[in-house]
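Subject: two folds for Thursday's group meeting

Dear M.,

Sorry for the delay on this. The cluster queue was jammed most of the week, so I only got both jobs back this morning. I'm pasting them in the order they finished. Each block is the input sequence followed by the predicted structure tokens. Could you check whether the formatting survives your parser before we put anything on slides? The first protein is the one we discussed after the seminar.
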Amino acid sequence: MKKIINTTNAPAAIGPYSQAVEANGTLYISGQLPIHPSVGKIEANDITSQTEQVFANISAILKESGYTFNNVVKSTVFLSDIADFGGMNEVYKKYYQTECPARSAYAVKALPLGSLVEIETIAAK
């Protein structure tokens, strides 16, 4: 059985998808952009600030779903410029210090709304 997760503490979907879906003890969080939920747009213009906003959005969805960062088993990071990997990683390691999740990181041609970073997350109980 699947459960659709939605919170006003993370940005609304900008297309036909859910913020997250929980199924059989696993939470699948859609790729989170650095959109500030209260204003509905990207405010930050550097990689560290954008990554911090992405993690704030992920945190809100995890909390709404009854999960924590300790439950995260996989992250996929999309960067509009691979040169931003170091800055993203500095923020990323604040959230995952021990028993880190598996991770992939890709440079992509472009991200929605001109974002520098997008992160999708899978968590399990």
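Second protein, same layout:
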Amino acid sequence: MTQLHDLTVVQQREALRAGEVSSTELSAHYLARIDAYGEELGAFVERTDELARREARSADDQLRAGSRLPLLGIPTAFKDLQAVAGVPIHLGSAAVTVVPKSDGPVVGRLRRAGVVTLGTTHAPELGPTCFTESAVVGRPAVTPYDTSRYASGSSGGAAAAVAAGLMPFAHGSDGAGSLRSPAAVCGLVGFKASRGRVPAAPSFMALGVEGVLTRTVTDTAALLDVVLGPGPEDLYGLPGATGLEDQVADGCRRLRVLRWGSAADDVGQAVDLAAKLLADLGHEVVDDPEPLDWDDELREQLQVVVTASVAATARRLPHQELLAPYTRWCLEAAASRTAADFLAAQTALAAAASRHLALAAHVDVVLSPVTTQPAVPIGWFEQDGTGEPCGQRMLDWSAWTPWANLTGQPAVSLPLHVTEDGLPVGVQLTGARVGDDARVLRLSAQLERAAPFADRHPVQW
């Protein structure tokens, strides 16, 4: 029997508009599921049950009055790194509790489109790690496919919640893979838009992009139709792609796809499967096993930028004694470097990103792994004997995701493969050029139709 959480975002939208279900019923259903599974999964920071009930009742009134707001009455939650008006935000840190007076730009677009606010989802302190663990929640966010394994990060709580059917989609963000790697290990679609497509905080590198985690490509496209489009203050504003939900229903012309990055075991099998599907669909797949790698120098330069970015926020926070060990390490590392070091690191990464773009210039899309392994056990990223995260181990695990943040290209993780143990494995499609968002989504939808994945679920489903 179909349950409410079996419905996709698009199906819920149509059911709400047809009066087949109310937002009050839908929200109560998800709140009950959060009661049952939210704590086990480490998914939530703040729950806003009463706010959700009020917003659901208001949505029902508006639906009866004929409102066609695109997401009216659909429940969701927001990542604990962005402002949500009237809701306590912690930035994943025991040192922070603030109640914003206004929404962040992307949060605001989703709320103005009519969503119901269930709460905020778990993120690591300030968001720099590819796993989600914080003193705010006290337990890691885990994939519902194996609760002894991380849901990745930094959008780990969001991914765990959507994968377990605690909400139909979730807001997240991606600074080096933080939508794509959680999607890969939780069996979801995680799309990082092109630099400039979505409102972003002012930054000359502009690595971070907000977005959504969903179960289907069509849902992703429908939600991007709401959030895409730069704000007037954006440094890298691109026109918002329009009509994506309609476009993904169309086929793709024959594309040239570069297969990049060798991987072993299940990750290699996932890429092999995607390559075969693409070839069967009539696309040309060409191989280049390792056009650009993270050598020791580039690793160090990335670490310079990451630690400086974390430190820039952390040093302004109160209660420094409550900061997590990795954040304190970033503060110490950044203090030992100069502004010239930071500029040199930016220059080196920009040059590497330019070479990366040049390597993709003769193709339309790049196919690669997302991570080197499926979801890893809790504690896997810690340095031996120190209890602190290891930046090199994190980059080794998610080596393919940061490139799209450095270049600004659009990229998506699709859950095309499952291991013998039932763990999802994602593959990544990256648009060869900044602005190729629609092309990546159309190709993703074509792959999804060839190898459907939306009905795969963990035991909590």
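Two things I noticed about the second structure. The two ends are 13 Å apart (CA to CA). The first strand starts at residue 44 and ends at 47.

Cheers,
T.
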